Amino acid sequence: MKFKELEDFLGTHFIYTYDNGWEYEWYAKNDHTVDYRIHGGMVAGRWVKDQEAYIVKLADGIFKVAWTEPTGTDVALDFMPNDKHVNGVIFFPKWVKDHPEITVCFQNEHIALMEESRLKYDTYPKYLVPEFATITYIGKAGQNNDDVIAEAPYKGMTDDIRNGKYFDENYRRITK
């Protein structure tokens, strides 16, 4: 599939690996919301649904997505799906770098803890992670598909997705 317009990008499910080895799974749920799971790196095991985000087309086939999490982490991603690349910058508050285990959860059920930790611990200096990533999976899940990111990450999940063992032909989770 070729990406050109924002409509081509919305509803797309990606798995990508940063050059530093961190593996992320990310879904453009609609024109203002993203869902994601983190499979590798300092906050592996974290997953989030319905994160408000700023999503725009920069040029044909190139898309920018940016958001601020309840943790105080800022994220800016440039997706170039036709070339299977992402360029991202994550701005982790000092507290997330010092206490990543606090964030390794289903964030939606722990917003108060994220906000409390943001106030309790140091925010600065921010831990800046600028990285390129290679997209290893692209799936057309359709917009507002709550089956895409619907459970905690597990070991081997991204391989199950890439190998067609996680979603059926309608992009619904296969019951395990």
Q: Notable features of this structure?
A:
single chain, Lipocalin, 38% strand, 14% helix, 176 residues, 4 helices, mainly beta
Tell me the span between the first and last alpha carbons.
Answer: 29 Å
Strand order of the largest sheet: 4-3-2-1-9-8-7-6-5
Instruction: Decide which structural class fits the backbone.
Output: mainly beta
* Rg computed from alpha carbons, rounded to a whole number of angstroms: 16 Å
Estimate the global geometry from the Cα principal axes: globular
Tell me the fraction of residues in β-strands, as a range. Answer: 35-45%
How would you describe this structure to a colleague?
This protein is 14% helix and 38% strand. Strand 1 (12-18) and strand 2 form a beta hairpin. It has a domain at 6-68 and 77-89 and 132-162: Calycin beta-barrel core domain (Lipocalin, Beta Barrel), CATH 2.40.128. The longest helix has 10 residues, at 111-120. The protein contains 4 helices and 9 strands. The protein starts with 5 loop residues before the first helix and ends in a 14-residue tail after the last helix. The protein has helices at 6-9, 94-98, 111-120, 157-162, and strands at 12-18, 23-28, 33-38, 47-52, 54-59, 62-68, 74-80, 85-92, 127-140. The chain is mainly beta. The protein has a 9-stranded antiparallel beta sheet.
